[in-house]
Amino acid sequence: MEYSAIHVRNLSKSFRKRRGFRSGSRIQALESVTFEVEEGETYGLLGPNGSGKSSLIRILSTLLVPDSGEVSLMGHSLPHEQQEVRRIIGRVSVDAAFYKKLSARENLLYTALLYGRKAAEAEKRAMEVLERLGFQNTSFSTPLEEMSRGMQQKISIARALVIDPPVLLLDEPTTGLDPKSRRDVQSFLEELRSAQGTTILLTTHDMAEAERLCGRIGFLAQGRLVAEGTADDLKRRAKALTLDDAFIHLTGEGLSKKEKPAEEVAVLEKV
Question: How far apart, in whole angstroms, are the C-alpha atoms of residue 14 and residue 11?
């Protein structure tokens, strides 16, 4: 049976915003979003804060349950097969959580052991990934709480890659990195997709990053997928010279929008 690596159809998610003890208005984070990502493809989602990007990544990561719609990864449907999905995905978030008292090595090995990897093999893989990302070996035993934000983000990326997942869900993975580290991460992701056929879903505010890494790009605005295609397709459709201009033309919004994502300003209802 043939299937897309990531299948999303008519996906919707809303949150209720409460005012004190009274029910307030409902915020629509995602509304009837439909797209597919083929195996081995890198697909980018661009949108301002509050457009629904993080909500979508959290649904695909099994951290949120949608209100309606169909979602599947590598043929496994959500939410019914969430355990199978968790085994095949690696997730990198801009707000990644760690055991801050533990070292980089301890955090990575703990993740690998949770996924049933052998410690020796996992440590070798972790060192390979960190070296490729420009991480200094001398920092491998340093507690994460003593590392910079950029160094912690490299550990977050390495943690997702140490289990060699067939699907990577990357939510603004290069945020907080210096220009050289950002290029190192981008080059590594290109090599990973080319060598291993890894499927990558990437959210980013960086237009140059999207053009470099993504075969196709979707524009999210106010919870809706308003356009998708290659970078050149989108620029032609908008009659624009740059992807920035194409985004503004097709969505009516800029990427510098500052409001918080819906899930951060809303109080979740109990299911």
Answer: 11
CB 202 within 8 A of CB 53: no
What are residue 228's DSSP bridge partners?
A: 218
User: Within its chain, how far is the Cα of 146 from the centroid?
Assistant: 25
- Collapsing DSSP to helix, strand or coil, 185 comes out as helix
- Local structure of residue 22 (DSSP, 8 states): B
Amino acid at 161: L
Task: Write out the two tokens for 66.
Answer: 């949608």
pLDDT of the residue at 138:
59
- The second-level CATH assignment, the architecture, of 6-265 is 3-Layer(aba) Sandwich (3.40)
Picking from 18-22, 134-138, 154-158, 205-209, which range would have the lowest pLDDT averaged per residue?
18-22
pTM of the complete model: 0.83
Q: What is the DSSP letter of 19?
A: B
